[in-house]
Q: What sequence folds into this?
């Protein structure tokens, strides 16, 4: 990959990656939150990279082993790996029934078949689509990958001939030279509107990423699927309602951010074996899973799935989750309401455990939902502002102003108040909400909510946002305290990093107030505003 000097500057400042993420999933980053001065200081540059990494995580990228310093230094294998993930997400964005209901043509008209399609990874759907057309074209083999199975170019020739017969060239299949056939395939694709960005050599050498991208481009240009209104209507009926879809998205992204071995494409389908839930439980509550009694997919016998899911429910009960109406078989059968309720408790448990991990500095006290809200109110009040909220369902939260004041309280210079609206109309609320999410990610918060969650005051997502800000604030204060107390150059002097944030505008010393902030929290579990039905 070759960059000009200006592109390298743009890349090193994080703006290139931010723009690429917005191309992949429009609206992910509010570009008003990106620092765009001609010359950025290290702190501002770090903010941009932090925003990019948290936003990449929020669209489904795996960023477990990459940090801001890797972006600053431009480490090729890590940076190109992240860029590859972002591009892949963009290329495969329409390979689902919600975006392309015509895909229902790939399966029989039955709920079971459609549910199976819903559970497939996008690249698997793309292979299924390719084989669907190859079968119609009389191609005798099944393409199972985007490398060795397409190296000779024959599958492409058959695919393009059935999708765009008007551009068919008989020489494509007649030639014996794979490189020449690959060249003719690319010529055919170009005539039907596909831009040429890979070479014949990329096809013949079996480059997985480039071949996947090529097939995805063909799909976008001409998918050759039916426009049968009855089939499309059937597919649309199978998709989830808006609220369920938003919660599924949030839990899917959260699970994928944990760095477990499995990757979730569709929560309601992928958790039915119980294995992924066991992986998540082991991540958030290490040692809780008895792996000797767990079966790893693929699982042939249904009772093995039930055994996995029964262990999931058992662990949930041990962690004091509300699982009264939940049985292992409910998960196996894909009961969406019960799965969402369990996942919410699991995500909430993880948040509270992260906050509890600071107990060495908080005298070992538990932290509850109510404590998080009390902390947020007190933090805003400490800056001299009067805004206060009563609960996670307080309608005033829809304006976004409270969260902007909270973000400004934990890091004064992170919010540009010239960009903030009064939050009176829906459009003003949306502008504030999108800005809040990007500012929080820029600060370092790992969050997966959408602007609509703030505008509609979704209690669960409001709690995750508040808890994430609190965790960042307390963790950052602790880290700053450790740095300040550590001797530099052996002479006991205080070390000050170039990238340290500005001091609090309230004059409060974050390091000395850390224990006070947590120990003064009121520990009343019954006061929690969030309940799971």
A:
């Amino acid at each position: 990959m070759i960059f000009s000097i200006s592109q390298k500057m743009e890349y090193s400042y994080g703006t290139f990656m931010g723009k690429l993420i917005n191309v992949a999933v429009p609206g992910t980053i509010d570009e008003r939150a990106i620092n765009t001065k001609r010359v950025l200081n290290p702190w501002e540059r770090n903010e941009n990279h932090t925003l990019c990494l948290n936003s990449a995580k929020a669209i489904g990228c795996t960023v477990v082993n990459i940090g801001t310093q890797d972006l600053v230094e431009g480490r090729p294998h890590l940076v190109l790996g992240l860029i590859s993930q972002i591009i892949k997400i963009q290329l495969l964005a329409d390979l689902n029934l919600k975006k392309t209901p015509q895909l229902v043509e790939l399966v029989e008209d039955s709920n079971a078949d459609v549910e199976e399609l819903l559970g497939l990874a996008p690249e698997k759907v793309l292979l299924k689509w390719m084989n669907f057309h190859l079968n119609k074209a009389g191609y005798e083999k099944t393409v199972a990958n985007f490398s060795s199975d397409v190296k000779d170019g024959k599958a492409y020739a058959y695919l393009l001939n059935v999708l765009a017969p008007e551009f068919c060239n008989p020489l494509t299949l007649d030639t014996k030279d794979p490189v020449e056939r690959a060249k003719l395939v690319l010529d055919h694709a170009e005539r039907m509107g596909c831009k040429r960005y890979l070479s014949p050599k990329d096809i013949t050498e079996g480059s997985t990423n480039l071949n996947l991208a090529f097939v995805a481009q063909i799909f976008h240009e001409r998918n050759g699927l039916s426009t049968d209104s009855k089939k499309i209507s059937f597919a649309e009926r199978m998709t989830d309602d808006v609220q369920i879809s938003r919660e599924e998205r949030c839990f899917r992204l959260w699970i994928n951010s944990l760095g477990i071995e499995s990757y979730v494409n569709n929560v309601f389908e992928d958790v039915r074996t119980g294995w992924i839930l066991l992986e998540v439980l082991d991540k958030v509550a290490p040692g809780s899973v008895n792996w000797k009694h767990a079966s790893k997919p693929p699982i042939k016998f249904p009772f093995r799935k039930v055994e996995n899911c029964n262990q999931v429910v058992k662990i949930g009960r041990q962690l004091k989750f509300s699982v009264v109406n939940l049985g292992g078989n409910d998960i196996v059968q894909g009961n969406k309401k019960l799965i969402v309720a369990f996942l919410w408790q699991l995500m909430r448990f993880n948040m509270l455990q992260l906050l509890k991990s600071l107990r060495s500095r908080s005298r070992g006290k538990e932290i509850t939902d109510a404590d998080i809200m009390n902390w947020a109110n007190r933090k805003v009040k400490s800056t001299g502002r009067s805004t206060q909220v009563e609960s996670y369902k307080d309608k005033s939260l829809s304006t976004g102003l409270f969260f902007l004041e909270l973000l400004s309280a934990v890091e004064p210079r992170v919010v540009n108040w010239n960009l903030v609206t009064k939050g009176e109309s829906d459009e003003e609320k949306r502008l504030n909400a999108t800005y809040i999410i990007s500012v929080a990610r820029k600060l370092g918060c790992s969050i997966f909510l959408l602007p609509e969650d703030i505008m509609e005051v979704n209690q669960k997502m409001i709690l995750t946002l508040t808890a994430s800000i609190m965790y960042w604030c307390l963790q950052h204060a602790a880290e700053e305290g450790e740095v300040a107390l550590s001797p530099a150059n052996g002479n006991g002097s205080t070390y000050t990093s170039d990238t340290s944030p500005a001091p609090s505008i309230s004059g409060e010393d974050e390091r000395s107030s850390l224990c006070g902030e947590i120990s003064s929290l009121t520990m009343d579990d019954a006061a929690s505003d969030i309940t799971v039905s």
In short: The chain has a mean pLDDT of 86.
